[in-house]
Amino acid sequence: MNNYTIAENLKSPIAIITERGAVAWRNHAFAQQFGTDAQQWLKEGVRAVAGESGWLQGFFVSDDEQRTVDVEIEGRTYRVERILAVADYGEPAVALWFEDVTAQREMEQAKSDFTSMIVHDLRGPLSGIQGTLEFVLSQEGSKIDSVYTDLLQEAQRESERMMALINELLDFSKIESGNFTVESEPIRMAGILKRAVRSLQSVASRDEIFLLTAHGRDVPQIVGSVEKLTQAIINLISNSLKFTPKGGLISVGAQIVRNGESPEAIVVTVTDSGMGIKAAEIQQIWEKYKQTRNKSLRGGGGTGLGLYIVKQIVEAHGGEVTVASIEGVGTSMVVRLPVKRAA
Amino acid sequence: MSSVRTPSAPPAPPIPEWSRLVGDALKQYGAWHTYGKLMEARAAYPNDLSLRGYTEIIRNTIVRDFMSHPKGMQMVPKLSAEFLTNFDRFNLSAQEGYLVSLIDGRLDLQKLLILSPFDQFTTLFNLAKLQHERAITIPQ
To answer: Taking CA atoms, what residue in A is nearest to B63?
Structure first.
């Protein structure tokens, strides 16, 4: 039984498609699924629309050997995967595997829409509760007993935590639904770091943790989204706050990576003197819903989405993230962002 | 059906297991020795992003140890007798030199942090380095 016979009898549609969109070979499943109409939509896949190459062209121009794309074919969604490049047909060709993922994508979309709706419905009332608590606690000369003040402050802290969780879920649903875009505005990274540190300084003081900035004023401008990068840094600091004991230290730094004279990238580090991460878990922390087995010292476990969101934001800016950790000594989250000039 | 394979890239040099190496060095030789070794390693592995993280963990440890003085932010650094009699021996950086100029034996850490033109962490790290090199002393 040769390779062709095996491929011929597989239940999934497989075909060898040339660069011009011609079917050079197909298996039974492909013929059954798409009949003789395949030529039509394959031609569409070759055509560039609004300067962007067609989905089929992408398999020929990309160096990514494991490239996969979702393609709408005759009202259904197929995940198309390149198996290998083929050289026997007089012009470049690729062997493609088609998997019908319509039901799966519909379910994901429904889940994302539902999360988005729930999150919006929760945020409104919670904002009202926070506003009321803030107003009551800000009244000078208030006759509220100190016991009640403590309870109100506790309620305020918990509502802040709940809001942070809801915001994480909202960002996650945006990422999952593909509605996650990054603006291209020139931004001062030093300002973002200062703002992020300032917003969490009161939380750090309350938990008796030193939260210090560790960067000069000469951090170069980059291009991106102020709001999203601020949120990424806040997520990193919040994560460190959860795992740093009383009397601990968190430093937020920025270093410039130069290529000759000109700055090439900014490396942001958020470093804590917390309990560290086990070596076996270190690479999993950026995955969604992943949390280390080390119990958080405060604030509960969270959604397990904070660091996943950081990774998505940083990668959307063309950057990368990594982590360094020594058990019992501390952890440093490292973010590298390229310095790009505004167009 | 024949496939076109791209030639495989030459194997990358193995990246050391930094977590274990740095952790062991810290236990055996202390934070300052480990910091020196990490700075050497950074020259050898300039593109290793995690190495910057390990360096920051050690710098953080140094600053936290410095701040754990019983008097905390009220500690008052003083120039050491050795520094006052033999300051040529000390090879100070520009930042360290500036900080030394602020130390008068009366200003506590909190005031030094306000007067320092550098960020708080850099100021504390440089003061810890001055203490390690015995240019300053901090009475209990």
So the answer is: A249
